[in-house]
Structure to design on (314 residues):
């Protein structure tokens, strides 16, 4: 199986290392030379291309699209036309331009696609999925998620103001960059019926995109939810609360803890010892490669991501 990785910034480099760890070595790289990583010398053994068509002429089976958000769709369309299965960084795009064309090409060529939401592969999120689906601790009523991280601390080796997350022209902004809670809540509770969104720029980071946002969510099954995301807070926060008829779940991603607090005050803890963040990415990649080999639809396709984007861009 041959891979092409388009974009070798922080996340592209992670995907490359994980592909290597799974035993694959037939890998080509597409680079602009603008990567913010301090050194990429260890990848010099791979063929490096500066032109996408030249890279696609090598006939890759899978195209990993990890360039800036604003370039995802253009890159994906060219790769899909060449018959590449697509492993695309979230979000699929910052606008709808070209998305229907991409979806049409993918369906015509019977390609397997995955938009990469790694938290669907987090052990605690998968545990919650099972417990909620089976009403093990009552019926879910309400959920609230918060993900707050200080943008200048993300990649200490680069000027955060030049990152894709901080630039409108590159498809940045906190609402789309920190889209994960919306996605894993969709995974947990099913179809989202409606969203109401408030986003703004606090002007504290000197960037031209939204740096904090709040989303009210109405799920088709009657559960209601709220998500807050921002680029501002220190220390960082990534937590989820789910209220049920028998108590509440509290998940703290950074503390690696999941607990159910019963209405009588007693607690149930769910162990996740030995977990490392990269495990999610490896499990996601492994699942996608398996789906490609079996010609099976992935967990979150291009079509799914178009529907998700329509809830956030109105």
């Amino acid at each position: 199986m041959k891979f092409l990785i388009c974009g070798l910034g922080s996340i592209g480099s992670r995907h490359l290392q994980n592909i290597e760890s799974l035993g694959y070595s037939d890998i080509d790289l597409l680079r602009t030379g603008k990567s913010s990583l301090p050194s990429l010398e260890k990848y010099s053994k791979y063929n490096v291309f500066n032109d996408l068509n030249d890279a696609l002429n090598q006939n890759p089976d899978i195209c990993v699209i990890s360039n800036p958000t604003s370039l995802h769709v253009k890159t994906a369309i060219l790769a899909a036309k060449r018959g590449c299965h697509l492993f695309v960084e979230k979000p699929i795009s910052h606008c709808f331009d070209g998305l229907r064309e991409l979806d049409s090409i993918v369906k015509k060529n019977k390609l397997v696609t995955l938009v990469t939401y790694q938290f669907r592969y987090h052990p605690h999120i998968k545990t919650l999925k099972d417990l909620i689906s089976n009403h093990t601790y009552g019926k879910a009523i309400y959920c609230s998620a918060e993900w707050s991280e200080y943008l200048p601390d993300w990649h200490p080796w680069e000027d955060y103001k030049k990152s894709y997350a901080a630039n409108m022209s590159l498809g940045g902004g906190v609402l789309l960059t920190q889209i994960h809670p919306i996605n894993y809540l969709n995974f947990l509770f099913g179809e989202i019926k409606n969203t109401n969104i408030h986003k703004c720029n606090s002007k504290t980071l000197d960037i031209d995109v939204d740096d904090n946002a709040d989303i009210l969510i109405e799920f088709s099954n009657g559960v209601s939810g709220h998500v807050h995301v921002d680029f501002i807070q220190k220390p960082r926060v990534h937590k989820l609360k789910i209220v049920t008829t028998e108590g509440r779940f509290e998940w703290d991603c950074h503390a690696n803890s999941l607990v159910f607090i019963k209405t009588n005050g007693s607690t149930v803890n769910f162990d996740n010892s030995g977990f490392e963040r990269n495990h999610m990415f490896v499990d996601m990649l492994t699942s996608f490669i398996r789906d490609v080999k079996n010609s099976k639809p992935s967990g979150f396709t291009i079509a799914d991501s178009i529907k998700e984007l329509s809830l956030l861009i109105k």
Remarks:
- The first helix runs from residue 10 to 21.
